[in-house]
Amino acid sequence: MSFQVVVRWFCRICEVEGQDMDNEPSCWYCGGRVIVTARPTVWTDQSRPR
Question: Which pLDDT score is estimated for 24?
Fold first, then answer.
C-alpha cells in the first residue's frame, strides 16, 4: 500500500490554514510558524483498503 501523510495547519498570526507534505510546515502567507492541527493519511494508489 502506498500512502502520504499530509499535514494540516493553522497560522494564528495570519488566521489562515493550509496543508503541506512537509513535516515542518510554515505559513504560505507570512512564512512564520504554524500550529499542526491534523496529519491525515492520503492513499496514493489503487491498493487502498475498501
Answer: 87
Contact 28, 16 (CB under 8 A): yes
Distance of CA 3 to the CA centre of its chain: 14
Tell me the C-alpha distance between 41 and 9, whole Å. Answer: 14
- pTM for the model stands at 0.69
State the CB neighbour count (10 A cutoff) for residue 8. 16
> Hunting for cell 489562515 — which residue is that?
16
Q: How distant, in Å, are the alpha carbons of 13, 15, 31, 40 from that of 43? A: 32, 29, 28, 10
Cell output for 17: 490554514
